[in-house]
Specification:
This protein has helices at 10-29, 36-45, 68-71, 73-89, 103-114, 129-142, 207-214, 228-240, 255-258, 295-304, 315-321, 324-329, 336-350, and strands at residues 34-35, 93-97, 121-125, 150-153, 160-167, 176-181, 184-193, 196-203, 222-226, 241-253, 269-272, 275-277, 288-290, 293-294, 308-314, 359-366. It is of the alpha/beta class and 384 residues long. It has one domain (38-176, 226-383): Rossmann fold. Strands 2, 3, 4, 5, 10, 14, 15 and 16 form an eight-stranded mixed β-sheet that branches. The longest helix is centred in the N-terminal third of the chain and has 20 residues, at 10-29. It is globular.
Amino acid sequence: MQNPLPTPSPEAQEHSTRLIRLIQDKIAAGGGWIPFARYMELALYAPGLGYYTAGAHKFGAAGDFVTAPELSALFGRTLARQVRQIMAQSAPHILELGAGSGKLAVDMLSELETSGQLPETYSILEVSADLRERQRALVQQRLPHLLDKVRWLDALPEKFSGAVVANEVLDALPVHLVHWRDSALAERGVVSEAEGFAWQERDLADAVLREAAQKIAVPDDYVSEICPAARGLIQTLAYCLEVGALLFIDYGFGAREFYHAQRNKGTLMCHYRHHAHDDPLYLPGLQDITAHVNFTDIAECGIDAGLELIGYTNQAFFLINSGITDLLAQHAPENMRDYLPLSGQLQKLTSPAEMGDLFKVIALGKGMAHPLTGFARGDLSRML
């Protein structure tokens, strides 16, 4: 880490220390080494201690990073317009994966209520009990009359028709780190060291992971991520989806760019109190750990599982196609108090220098008879 990060409070440090001890116990039980994917899973999702399962603020100015829904209500309201089109071709139901603070759900429901096209149900699959309570409280505060439409799930439904939405979910799934070196394949894992952890590589033993790695052409001495968990999620969603579409919004690339020769250190990134760095072994439980998404892998997995690739584009094209500028136009430029902040938010959401190009949107569906407006222009399928 080049720049010093903020020092955690004694309480936060103690929380991280408890998680460190838990992970070290898992390492000992695993023979002194665990794959990085297992470390990432524990660091993010260990019950009561992981980053997403403990109670610290994560989103917005008081947290560690700002997501698009936290940045502007324009994001959720625009996404609702696309979801409305999906529901019209399938069923009036929405399923959101990993709903964060609940802001996206509130903004989407507000827009759908305004248009008179509310879903019959808005389901949220959320692994964090703490975040569930925050989501419920926000809906209760902002849309108390719609609380009966919102339900929280412990697992994916066996069958579902409608729109599935996942904003910045794929990037938080545990990834395996593979090292291509000297015509051999090694997996990078984690061992205990003093009061923390250190890296250690071992021969890549997992047959499925090895087969996937062998299909990837990269230069020698190259480290990157493979995410079987993402494939598992897509396959499960494909199985339960009867009619409708999955919308994934996240930062990432197609495979050629993901495994570009210059990206030989991988894409792992950590966020701690609005500081970005690349050391996932630092302060487990207090920082987010993410990896960019290989959208080619997502598309291929969906197609193999019986889904159709409906569209793939960047966030800027998707939001503009879906009518974000129309929403801004509802506010008169003369009303500078309202218009200027919204205009600035739109710029951040769509500018190539901000979120507009790095973030991509992919739609996979089943039984959809008509194209989705969010992908009318700016198709990037050739990049997959």
